[in-house]
Design a protein that fits this description.
- Helix content is 86%, strand content 0%.
- It starts with a helix and ends with a helix.
- The protein has helices at residues 3-34, 41-63, 68-92.
- Helix 1 packs antiparallel against helix 2 (41-63), helix 1 (3-34) runs parallel beside helix 3 and helix 2 packs antiparallel against helix 3 (68-92).
- The model has no long low-confidence stretch (mean pLDDT 85).
- It has one domain (3-92).
């Protein structure tokens, strides 16, 4: 398998996982936070794990500029979630 084929397979797998698992869970979490709910510890662990996975996404985006818009949107979503979680924690204390 060439580097190009390997990268294409990795990108396809990551995008499928993102659409099937990560985005639905992240959007549900954002909805709860937007309603003013406080973040649950398992939610923050999940976000932390997702952010760690973005290192792979970053690698792919560097090699495939056509994926950069997706990477930017995902990073913005992580930022929104963490900022809202912090705001809700401040209000809750």
């Amino acid at each position: 398998m060439t580097h190009v084929e390997r990268d294409a397979a990795l990108a396809s797998t990551m995008l499928r996982h993102l659409n099937t698992w990560q985005l639905p869970k992240l959007f549900a979490m954002k909805e709860r936070l937007d309603r003013g709910e406080r973040v649950e510890p398992e939610d923050m662990r999940y976000v932390h794990d997702c952010v760690r996975q973005t290192l792979w996404v970053r690698y792919l985006c560097e090699r495939h500029p056509d994926l950069r818009a997706i990477c930017t949107e995902i990073t913005s979503l992580y930022k929104e979630i963490t900022q809202r979680a912090l705001e809700n924690e401040k209000v809750g204390h």
